[in-house]
Amino acid sequence: MTLSALIFDVDGTLAETEDLHRRAFNISFTAAGHEWFWDVPLYRELLKVTGGKERIRAFLDCFFNTTTLDSDGVAALHRAKSRTYERIIAREGLQLRPGVMALIDAARSSGLKLAVATTTNLPNVDALCQSVWRQPASEIFDVIAAGDEAPHKKPAPDVYNIALERLGLAPSECIAFEDSRNGVIAAKAAGLRVVVTPSQYSTGEDVAQADLLIDDLTKLDFEHLFRGQLKSATADLE
Ligand SMILES: [Mg+2]
């Protein structure tokens, strides 16, 4: 089967963004007068819940008996967090994970389509693309499926199904790139093959469903990958 497109998760896959998200949450909590602090071990647990608003709600449901914030309050807090995240990236910059830039460049040169399927929202994807490429996400990716567009977030396959529909391609014509268990489950449920590069926060998760598990994308043989030969796409590093 000819490969036609690559579909990328964003957080943890394109870049190690998760700790920036954690910092943005904490800054926004303080600014809103909440004495909440998400340390690294807690955030690792909270990341099992995909979507920022859903993560705040899960935290409140777990640690508070009363309805501390209604859905409007959670949404407002999450908007403030997203603006904080964008400011952090604009100020500090962001680097792609090893091999990501090379893969995207090679895929584009080979005529493959590029897509994003993420639970993070579009402004966050734009912030990453502006930091790395000085261009909005729509200039880098042919298709973007992001945030609340999907009725059910990962591990549901919805966001991948939306990306496939917009690409006009069958799952067999695409390969997904993920860093986490929830992402792998979502991609597999959409019928995709998945390359997994565990990230700082997802290392150690059960990603047994992955078609290829590698430390980072520098370990990929792009020529094999672009021919759809995933099993032989591990670069010879001798
Ligand atoms: Mg991820």
Q: What's this entry about, in short?
A:
With 238 residues, this protein is an alpha/beta fold. It has two domains: 5-16 and 94-232, 3-Layer(aba) Sandwich (Rossmann fold); 18-92, DNA polymerase, domain 1.
Outline: globular
- Judging by the overall fold, what is the CATH architecture of the largest domain? 3-Layer(aba) Sandwich
- Report the structural category: alpha/beta
Query: Numbering strands along the chain, what is their spatial order in the largest sheet?
Result: 3-2-1-4-5-6
CATH class of the largest domain: Alpha Beta
Low-pLDDT parts are: none
Average pLDDT, all residues: 93
Query: Share of helix among residues?
Result: 40-55%
Q: Structurally, how many domains make up the residues?
A: 2
Q: Taking Cα atoms only, what radius of gyration do you get, to the nearest Å? A: 18 Å
**What fold name stands as the CATH topology of the largest domain?**
Rossmann fold
What's the structural blueprint in terms of helices and strands?
Elements (H helix, E strand, L loop, with lengths): L4 E4 L9 H14 L8 H7 L5 H12 L7 H22 L7 H10 L3 E6 L3 H12 L3 H4 L2 E4 L11 H10 L6 E5 L2 H9 L3 E4 L15 E2 L8 H5 L12
Parallel strand pairs: 1-2, 1-4, 2-3, 4-5, 5-6
Helix pairs in contact: 1-4, 3-4, 4-6
The chain binds magnesium ion (MG).
Describe this structure in words.
It is a single chain. The chain is of the alpha/beta class. Helices cover 44% and strands 11% of the residues. The chain has 10 helices and 6 strands. It has helices at 18-31, 40-46, 52-63, 71-92, 100-109, 122-133, 137-140, 158-167, 181-189, 222-226; strands at residues 5-8, 113-118, 143-146, 174-178, 193-196, 212-213. It has a 6-stranded parallel sheet. Helix 1 (18-31) crosses helix 4 (71-92), helix 3 (52-63) crosses helix 4 and helix 4 (71-92) runs parallel beside helix 6 (122-133). The radius of gyration is 18 Å and the shape is globular. The mean pLDDT is 93. The chain binds magnesium ion. The site of magnesium ion (MG) has 7 residues, from loops. Magnesium ion (MG) binds at residues 9, 11-13, 179-180, 183.
